Amino acid sequence: MITEEIKLKVRDIVGSENVLESSVDCFGYSYDSSFVPMSADNVPDLVVIPSTTEEIAAVMAIAHEHSIPVTPRGTASGRTGGCIPVQGGISLALHRMTKIIELDERNMMITVEAGVRTVDVYNFCAEKDLFFPPDPASWKYSTIGGNVGENAGGMRAVKYGVTSNYVMGLEVVLADGSIINTGGKAIKNVTGYNLTQLFTGSEGTLGVITKAILRLIPMPKVRNTMQLMFPSLDNACNTIHKMLMSGAVPAAAELMDRISLQAVARHRKLDINPSIEACVVVEIDGESNEDLQKQAAKIDMIANEFEVAEVRIAASQQEVDEIWAIRRGLSSAIGAMAPNRLGEDISVPRDAFPKTVRLIRKIAEKYNLTIAVYGHAGDGNIHPSVLCDLSKPGEEHKVHAAVDEIFDAALSVGGTLSGEHGIGITKRPHIAKALGESGINALKMVKQAFDPKGILNPGKVW
Ligand SMILES: Cc1cc2nc3c(=O)[nH]c(=O)nc-3n(C[C@H](O)[C@H](O)[C@H](O)COP(=O)(O)OP(=O)(O)OC[C@H]3O[C@@H](n4cnc5c(N)ncnc54)[C@H](O)[C@@H]3O)c2cc1C
């Protein structure tokens, strides 16, 4: 219960224009990009839109004193309901904290506020020939705070890693309103526990990230894209394995199965041979065109060993854009195939990719559902998309049963429930089978240490 007196204090801190109170205004903060249906139960009592760390600290101190739930929010592109305020209270929306504080070229690091969009960090650095690689497909709108909160991955993870590989330090407001700084610009740093990595991927449950120091690398001088079409899914995966073992490590190796390709073909009015079982989009980068040509020739040779049907090496930026448009437009193309769609995110050892896809196909058959499969095959991260019509009686139950089996399939091949989208609400019922009771108890002990009153993003992860 947030009393008028508390609301007054919060308005004093951030300014009344930065506090939303009406249920209509607050409704917009009750959902994200996940499958979680909109519900009046998830509407926050108050939306607070701070501009500084000090404002956040003061709001947290009040929330702590009165045991009010606080759910941090970037731009709600999350896929697991992470920023949905399931217990009401305050939705703390960080999208106005968009300052790029410092670009330190000599140390190759950038310090930004949590609400800066991923694409803005990329573009800002690119102007100085510096490269911030993490690139979730949502990068045009997802924030750095959200990316750190979820430890977001993306297309280039196969060569460059995920967000956590680039987070050097954080400024964090803790549950009681105190401000701490973790890590920093020193490249080697073993002073105390590695809190930077603990907060990364903590889904807003341990602290509010207000600033991040991010590591950069030199921008590759040249890039190109290849599109490989295979009549066999196994051979598409075999090509990726051999590519990685050969040292021709692509920046990205994305795989789309037949159903995904058909969705794109329909959506973009493309002519794709129906015998094609898998399309692999490969990005290569390097220091010179000669270097690129060598990599492309090696990949071409390997793909031919595995009976590739068609190899396209982009000959112009327009062709690069055309190939990537297929992959980047996949989400909307698949979404257009059915009234509803549940996009999942499992992660398996790379060599289990084809086996997992086959298991998913069996599950689709068992439940008579269409499941499109695509993903970051270079790092074993699969996104099965269950197409459905929730207005049909029994459909929702069927979809959840199928997803349950998809998680079992991932675990059975040595994989896990999420590669990049986190647990949030949607995977919360399943986490016990991945971590076991003692694993969950360990998470609870960490939570208890940072947030003994349980006010930060309650109802998530376990
Ligand atoms: C079309 C589409 C494509 C996507 N592609 C990818 C992809 O390729 N790879 C990938 O990894 N993800 C992807 N995502 C998922 C999503 O974009 C990422 O999880 C993203 O990092 C979330 O950022 P956000 O700013 O929207 O965070 P939100 O959704 O607002 O929040 C996500 C979580 O982070 C917490 N959080 C947010 N800000 C803070 C903060 N400042 N401090 C503490 N906690 C915070 C929230 O409480 C919540 O738990 C995709 C989503 C969509 C819709």
From TrEMBL:
One of its GO terms (molecular function) is FAD binding. Keywords: FAD, Flavoprotein, Oxidoreductase. Residues 40-219 form the FAD-binding PCMH-type domain. SUPFAM superfamilies: FAD-binding/transporter-associated domain-like, FAD-linked oxidases, C-terminal domain. Gene3D superfamilies: 3.30.465.10, 3.30.70.2190, 3.30.70.2740, Uridine Diphospho-n-acetylenolpyruvylglucosamine Reductase, domain 2, Vanillyl-alcohol Oxidase, Chain A, domain 4. The keyword Oxidoreductase applies. InterPro entries: FAD-bd_oxidored_4_C (IPR004113), FAD-bd_PCMH (IPR016166), FAD-bd_PCMH-like_sf (IPR036318), FAD-bd_PCMH_sub1 (IPR016167), FAD-bd_PCMH_sub2 (IPR016169), FAD-linked_Oxase-like_C (IPR016164), FAD-linked_OxidoTrans_Type4 (IPR051914), Oxid_FAD_bind_N (IPR006094). Pfam families: FAD-oxidase_C (PF02913), FAD_binding_4 (PF01565). Its cofactor is FAD. Belongs to the FAD-binding oxidoreductase/transferase type 4 family. This is Putative FAD-linked oxidoreductase. It comes from bioreactor metagenome.
